[in-house]
Amino acid sequence: MRTDNAHRYRVLLADDQADIRDALRLLLKNEGYETHAAASPAEALSAIESREFDAVLMDLNYTRDTTSGQEGLDLLSRIQIVDSTLPVVVMTAWSSIEVAVEAMRRGARDFLQKPWENTRLLSILSTQIDLRQALRRASRLEAENRLLRAESRPSLIAESAAMQPVLELIARIGPSDANVLITGEHGTGKEVVAQTLHAVSDRANRAMVTVNAGGLSEGVFESELFGHVKGAFTDARVDRVGRFELADGGTLFLDEIANVPLNLQAKLLRILETGELERVGSSHTRRVNVRVIAATNADVNAEAEAGRFRQDLLFRLNTIEIHLPPLRERRGDIELLALHFLRIYAQRYHKKLAGFESTALQMMREHPWPGNVRELDHAVERGVLLSGEPLVKSSDLGLRAGGPGAATRLEDMSLEEVERHLIQRTLNRHAGNVSHTARALGLSRSAMYRRLQKYGLE
Ligand SMILES: Nc1ncnc2c1ncn2[C@@H]1O[C@H](COP(=O)(O)OP(=O)(O)OP(=O)(O)O)[C@@H](O)[C@H]1O
Ligand SMILES: [Mg+2]
After folding, report:
1. DSSP assignment of 398-410, as one string?
2. Strand ranges for 131-250 from DSSP E
3. In the predicted model, is pLDDT for residue 361 greater than 60?
4. pTM score
5. How do beta strands 55-59 and 276-278 pair?
6. Above 90 in pLDDT, residue 454?
7. 62 has which bridge partners?
8. Whose Cα sits closest to atom 9 in ligand 1?
9. Given ligand 1 and candidates 329, 374, 376, which is best to mutate, with the most ligand atoms within 8 Å of its CB?
10. CA atoms of 324 and 319, how far apart (whole Å)
11. Phi/psi of residue 262, each to 5°?
12. Among the atoms of ligand 1, which is closest to the Cα of residue 185?
């Protein structure tokens, strides 16, 4: 019946009668299921609490009281509390329709009358398992959708191919408690990604507290993070709650993590390992439940190799690493981002602007954007402020004219930059026609597409 052997579905069989358990076990084993048998509601519950199951097949009547189905109904309710997505199929020999209805009302997905028909049992089981898989996929999709919905979270514009792995990671690990390290050049959107991760997590209705390690002197860093008690040092006139405690139940965003002084890295490591901290000047240990998202534009791996960053701390922080590509490698997003900023600033400055002149768009597409999205943000803000209505002109943006070709000499560019530049120029000359551009450059269409993707020009 089942084709996929990579994962054997595990079914819990709960029945007080040994011969029934054996018969079910044999039937399911032959169909490729893994089974686990429980003889009482208590055994069933402890099995469910200790391992993962794909479905439960359970009797409603156990020895204590063999007709009312009450023990089975109670077990069902308990299972719902432990895992409401786990499909439960109930069986009863005393098939009074009321008990079956009550079981369904308490969350059973289907029911069987004893003695059962094997084919019917197997079909109910596989249907329920399939449904649950679909439900899980749907909840993954739901997380992704939440990600794409604008209202409840910061806007994260990311349509280019280069950003797809980032979006997938956010959808996949956003809802978890995993620590995440976000890397990328200045202005690539690390903070936006941190906010998005928080917004799609279960902690979304709690605080995300930010600490910028780059902006704090060594002296205040410790009390900022861990808090202090009155009298801990000269200026400590009152007790102070640290950011870790403020973030309890929520997310702590540690920005510019590479700047944390070495001696404080050890303290940071401890709290990440144990969830425990003491305020400066106090010996009272407090526990916090904080998810840590860190960001840096430094090469922390190199910092760790050079001994300036603790390797063990890095391992704690980068359970998952999200790398944000620079804007020049995701040019497919430039226009969308520009329009996004245009809408924001047009509203803020009360201007009736419909968009950009084509030369302005062209100029933005070609600009090297060393300051990444933030630079684009500022350029558009300037453009909106300076422009006459209804369109922002290229001269309003304050970018150096002519893009990288004019502003940067070829010899100052890397080979990849030159290639990208050449492809962009040729594409422009052929009005975006990929086949013509490929022919002009002596490339096959597939080689061309690979490069378009690589450089975010698609
Ligand atoms: N994908 C995006 N969609 C929408 N806005 C973005 C995106 N990426 C960045 N921004 C905007 O660009 C600006 C810079 O982003 P952000 O502050 O997140 O960058 P950063 O990587 O943290 O930079 P730095 O390293 O300098 O701290 C912000 O105004 C942010 O809202
Ligand atoms: Mg930042």
Report:
1. TPPTTHHHHHS-G
2. 180-183, 208-212, 227-228, 240-241
3. yes
4. 0.59
5. unpaired
6. no
7. 65
8. 189
9. 374
10. 16
11. -55, -45
12. 25
